[in-house]
Design a protein that fits this description.
The complex is a heterodimer of chains A (387) and B (249). Chain A is built from 14 helices and ten strands. Chain A is an alpha/beta fold and 387 residues long. Chain A folds into two domains: 249 residues, Aldolase class I (TIM Barrel), CATH 3.20.20.70; 123 residues, no CATH class. Classes of the chains: A alpha/beta (387), B alpha+beta (249). At the A-B interface, helix 7 of A face loops of B.
Amino acid sequence: MKVYHQTGFRQNWNIESFEQGVGDGLIYSPVNLDADKLLLLDSHLKRTGFIDPQLYLLNEAKGTLDTYPYFPGNIKPDYSTPDLDNSNILLAQMCVDFQIKNDFEYIIIPTRYYADNPTTYFAQTSDYFVIPFCDYIRASGIRKKILLSVIVKAIMLSDDEKRNEALNWITGQNVDGVYLIFEDNSATKQIKDFEFLFNALLFIQILKNNGMEVHLGYNNTEALLYSIAMPDSVSMGSFENLRSFGIKRFQDLENGPMRGPRARLYSSQLIQWVDYQYIGAFKKLITDYENLFDDSEFKPLMFKPEFNWHFLKSEPYKHYFSVFNRQIKSLPGSQTERMENIKVQIKNAVNLFKKIEDSVLLDENSDGSHLPTWFNVVNAFQKEIKK
Amino acid sequence: MAEHTEIGLVVIKRGAIKSYTSLERIKREIELLSVLKSEFYPQQYHFNIDIKTKEFEIVEDYIEGASLRESMKSFKTVEQIFTLLLSLIKGLSIIWELNIVHRDLKPENIIIRKNGTPCIIDLGIARFLDLEALTKTIAPIGPCTPIYAAPEQLINNKNVIDPRTDFFCLGIISMEMFLGVHPFDGTFLENHFSIVENILQANYLLETKHVNRDERMVELAAKTLQLQPFNRFRNYNQLQSFVLKHLNT
């Protein structure tokens, strides 16, 4: 299973990390990287990755999106949905040509984003994107694998009819796989919704049963859990908006006051990002507290008293890339063994939290309270696939 | 049936054009058959529409052989069934590649030529996925022969009709050859449901009092006779590989 860097703001951290051998490739973000700069990047940074074309909102020229030739506003000012009827073929050609020019590993068919779930979504996506993209790719004799972008909304997981519609549509497309993004609306930093996680696993499993490649985007640590459905890749990102999909990232909103999140440090043993403020308490109250966190080249610096924790500092993220990549890569190759392995990891983490909480009480975003749900999800999934 | 001085035996199909929909459907069949020059399909020679009488006339090859309905008992072993299935997949892949779904596969629409090659007839209700759908969305049931139809046809869910719909029909035909009875027949399933009801509930036979189950057929049924297309073979390459794997072992 591969691990891709989900890039965005401060993508140089991902690139630097990748160049040190962490991760299998990069997923590029047009909103954050000028098209010309992307073209100039060395081929070794692109040939094992792909671009997310980010046509989620047709008319939003967020960041550097309008530097891309296929950006709809460059085809026609004030581009809107009806324009797709006339220029979908041109858009497909420009988007495919750009991807070919960069020589990425995969060609990505984009998708649009809707806040609701319109009944015409799949038919329109076929007409506007899938058919013109596939026609052009095949007519051009392009041999690269094609991935279809799909945003899986919560209702597509919870409602059987919507789920079946989505799965029948996806598996009916003549593509090699999917770039799958689960839209998670949970208010907590870790996903604690049993039904959501269980249904997401089934969704992935069904796509794999159909012989499709499944590449998951915008993952947080639940990538570890998703791994039991045997996707082809999971992703890891730095900031929270790269570890959970939200459309705000693509909206050109008025810049209101921004509130940075508190810096956090990932622990593979705890399967949790821990608020740095607890590290001071750990130091005072837990013997060998440093052992709760993985070794990495960044750890010594971060544990120095003078380290000035801030969410814009690179070290905690680079540490996460290194540690999480290692954690994913050490998973067993067989599904059965992987499920057992993850249950053991979860149980160990739960036990560690119990010990920690003898001395230090943690809030709901640092305390591992997602872990019991995750354990139950693995058990339920294990039972389901035995049927 | 008639004899043409140059072509030989031909079949003349005449019928009433009941509506614009049926006319368009027939025209599509003709256009398709004129393109398909394959032993898996009958050759088309002539097509005429009489607007005044609202009738159509088609002249096509007479296919010598027996329908699969008539010759079903000669396909007894799994090897014989899979060999025929492989030929059908080869023939149908021609239209599937053109984004066309047959939608009315049944033993009566498959003629086994004297050399054993199946010839697939009656593409009249084939749905041309590239063109605007002709069947009315509000119709309670799509065009098909209900007892050989996939669930999505029975509930007229046109959005999900694709080659996997034909896989379902092939699954029924294969199981019928194997079991000697329709796999969704309530009489043998010992329930009181009709075949259509059983199709919609995914109740099907894997063995009878006279025929023991065969794991190859069980697997074929499990990957074709599913309610949801996403639980069937995803494309004909997968179906073909499955059949080949079991023919070669």
